[in-house]
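EI: anyone free to look at a 123-residue chain?
SC: sure, send it
EI:
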Amino acid sequence: MKKLSEAEFEIMQVLWRHNTPMTSNQLLDEMGTERNWKLASLMTVLARMAEKGAVYCDRSTRTNYYTALVSEEEYKLTEGETFLEKLFHKSAKDFISAMYQGKKMSAKDIRELREYLDELEEK
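SC: here you go
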């Protein structure tokens, strides 16, 4: 699947959060407060997302229902791999080092990471 724009990602977050088919009006209600969306703009973005294979539009009834075709986990995995490859040459160690040196990791973050890596090693 192609990379999502920021606006497309926001729509996907709503679809993932609700985990049920939604109408454009339901999406608009949810998105309207965050971006001041207009229905025409939302419909344009949804059409683009359908072309990318991110959403499915069920047109079998008078009301169109939109469903996410990609799970949140799948998208995060793909984007995470792309991010690591592009900026850190696939090195998780280089990424963590950059976060630590940039003071973006707290002692709690490091502890949680250590516990997670220990769990992975045990498996």
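EI: The two ends are 31 Å apart (CA to CA).
SC: 👍
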